[in-house]
What does this fold into?
Amino acid sequence: MRRARRENSHRAGRGFAVAEAGGETPVLADPPARFAVTIEDVAVDGTFPADGFADRVGAWAAATLSAAAPPGA
It folds into this structure.
């Protein structure tokens, strides 16, 4: 138990960041309604077939990064 607590010590005591009064509020994009490629697309029929797997994972990763990019990026 001590090991788990020690290894998770980075989580304790920090709380949430607080914006300074008068500072700018960051503008966050709305999350996409649907990603261009989902993990379901990678799984195909639920078996994650090896044929084409690397290409599907690459397309999924690119879609995830694209969706997380700021507007206009």
The chain has three helices and no strands.
